[in-house]
Design a protein that fits this description.
Layout lengths: L2 H6 L6 H15 L3 E3 L6 E3 L4 E3 L1 H4 L3 H13 L12 H4 L1 H12 L5 H9 L5 E3 L1 H7 L1 H4 L3
Antiparallel strand pairs: 1-2, 3-4
Helix pairs in contact: 6-7
The structure holds zinc ion.
């Protein structure tokens, strides 16, 4: 395929593949719950889907959502956004807060921020359906 796929690996995982990754992730870290990296709602152990930043970037839907949030131009703290730094680490919480808050950044900057995420994204069932419809449509 194109340069994008050469650089970032491959096409989107299937829903099942993203699920299996999440299961491995839960086993590895021994947590009993965590928060969705998109909406910050609680995800119970062994639930949710794990996506890499390159895969998150393939969702125009999610990028549009971030741009919309920025357009609102409201600066909010990580706490008020429901992002708990103790669950995902302060660095990631700060990055996500920046993405959602950055009133001046454009689409390119949203993409750059997402790209800079080196840890995988835990995504809840609702967010998978809403923001990653292509993945949700697979089995
Ligand atoms: Zn969610």
């Amino acid at each position: 395929m194109g340069l994008w796929q050469t650089l970032f690996g491959s096409k989107n995982p299937s829903k099942q593949q993203a699920r299996e990754r999440a299961l491995a992730w839960w086993q590895q870290n021994g947590k009993t719950s965590a928060k969705c990296d998109i909406c910050a709602n609680e995800v119970s152990a062994n639930e949710g889907y794990l996506l890499h930043s390159a895969e998150v970037l393939q969702s125009d839907n999610y990028i549009d959502f971030c741009c919309q949030k920025m357009a609102e131009g409201v600066t909010r703290s990580a706490g008020s956004l429901g992002i708990d730094p103790t669950v995902f680490g302060a660095a990631k919480a700060a990055e996500i807060t920046l993405i959602l808050n950055s009133a001046v950044a454009g689409r390119d900057q949203v993409i750059a921020k997402i790209k800079s995420q080196t840890t995988p994204w835990l995504v809840c069932e609702t967010c998978l359906s809403r923001r990653f419809p292509k993945i949700a449509a697979t089995v």
